[in-house]
Design goal:
It contains four helices and five strands; from the N terminus they run αββββααβα. The chain has 171 residues and is mostly helical. It has a single domain, classed as Butyryl-CoA Dehydrogenase, subunit A, domain 3. The strands form two sheets. Strands 2-1-5 form a three-stranded antiparallel sheet. A two-stranded antiparallel sheet has the order 3-4. The longest helix has 29 residues. The mean pLDDT is 82.
Length: 171
């Protein structure tokens, strides 16, 4: 072969490392967005998550109640949790394809699964934005850091999924 292909191996290794790091970042962001308290911030600074509203009850500890039973909130919960599970499955599938899968094949399955995860978090975050944190949220409330992380996951997951589809395992 010509010397032109000698430079392709380091570039491919870097691309593989970069897309793997990006995928791990997406999983971490989705994990924090799903479980941390900070989807909606009340005017007094208290933050609410997707699952429970917990407030410190003086010296008696914490008082928690379900975040809500609305069907749209259940849909957001399911979509964001589903995106986390899909992204994790896509990563496991990618690792399997990288180490045990057939050579010369594209990473289409892991890329498609990661794109699906990106679309699920897109729909979940858009639904949350469209319907607000609560029916009639208190005036002055705002979206929190978990909501921002969920939106950051959308382009990152879609970008890593598209990159996976274009990667080909070396023969």
């Amino acid at each position: 072969r010509s010397n032109g292909s000698a430079g392709a191996a380091p570039a491919m290794s870097f691309l593989l490392f970069a897309v793997t790091a990006l995928h791990v970042l997406v999983i971490i962001f989705l994990f924090v967005a799903t479980l941390d308290k900070g989807w909606w911030v009340l005017p007094d600074g208290r933050a609410l998550n997707l699952w429970y509203d917990c407030v410190q009850n003086g010296t008696r500890g914490w008082a928690c109640s379900a975040a809500g039973d609305g069907p749209w909130l259940r849909a957001v919960q399911g979509l964001v949790l589903g995106a986390l599970l899909l992204s994790s499955a896509a990563f496991a599938l990618f690792v399997w394809q990288l180490h045990a899968g057939p050579r010369g094949r594209l990473f289409s399955a892991s890329g498609g699964t990661q794109i699906l995860a990106g679309l699920w978090v897109l729909v979940g975050a858009a639904l949350y934005a469209a319907l607000g944190a609560r029916p009639g949220p208190p005036p002055g409330g705002r979206f929190g850091h978990c909501f921002v992380l969920a939106w950051l996951c959308v382009p990152l997951a879609l970008g890593s999924g598209i990159t996976y589809i274009h990667l080909r395992k070396k023969e």
